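Hi both,

Apologies for the delay on this - the queue was longer than expected. I finally got the adenosine-5'-triphosphate-bound model through. Below you'll find the protein sequence and the ligand SMILES exactly as submitted, and right after that the structure tokens for the full complex including the ligand.
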Amino acid sequence: MAYLSIDKISMHFGGLVALEDVSIQVEPGEIVSIIGPNGAGKTTLFNVITGVYKPTSGSIHFENQPIHNKEPQEIVKAGIARTFQNIRLCKDMRVIENVLLGMHTHTDYHFWDAVFRTKKFKTIELEKHEEALRILTSIGLQDQIHNYATNLPYGAQRRLEISRAIATKAKIILLDEPAAGMNAFETDALLDFIMELKIQGFTIILIEHDMRLVMNISDRIYVIDHGKKIAEGLPKDIAKNPRVIEAYLGRKEENA
Ligand SMILES: Nc1ncnc2c1ncn2[C@@H]1O[C@H](COP(=O)(O)OP(=O)(O)OP(=O)(O)O)[C@@H](O)[C@H]1O
């Protein structure tokens, strides 16, 4: 079984079929992109993987364990974290505090340790700060730790959101349209940054509309249209797949 194995997932909202029998396999260290026209079902798939929605049918296994029946917090603990289409940071909190929030799921002291500020509490808090600093340094935000998240430029806010995902001890990071709202320069920096995450050993699943980014960065691509998987393969093959081209062009005409 694959590292992350998504098997015949369907997701129905009443009569609306958002996903139908979608199967996706991801291996450790891969960058796998999920593309498709607006409303294809991509974000719904992320919501199913992360436990926000329970699938109508199908199964998801991560490291051979079923996760489709687990709560979002349990899935984060298992090692899958995500970012959102619209950046979700605590903007009035400092950069380092946002990263510390991500560590919450793994905090190992009890309520009374915190109340009495026991030695255990102080040791763990110190370790958390050191780890947050290490993550922020690896992500190039070490000079911003005391700045408020809201003051960071857009690209840096995206990186901070990813830092928070890393802080959960994630092994797989799901990125939902990270290049949205970025100019070409910022998108290039993002591409380098995602490649760096891969080198550090993270597995990445990417939803993205920026085809230049997708084609340059992906090991493999899955294409979803109207809730169904219509293609999968290497970027060079996806780029010339007639079904994929039709799905995009057809939708463009619908929107015109
Ligand atoms: N909670 C929900 N209740 C009802 N319908 C939903 C819900 N979430 C998603 N949908 C519907 O499921 C379909 C797929 O939506 P989804 O957001 O997954 O598409 P997408 O591929 O991520 O689109 P985009 O690229 O525009 O973000 C849409 O028709 C959407 O309206």
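Main takeaway for now: The pocket of adenosine-5'-triphosphate is lined by residues 13, 16, 18, 36, 38-44 (CB under 6 Å).

I'll put the files on the shared drive as well.

H.
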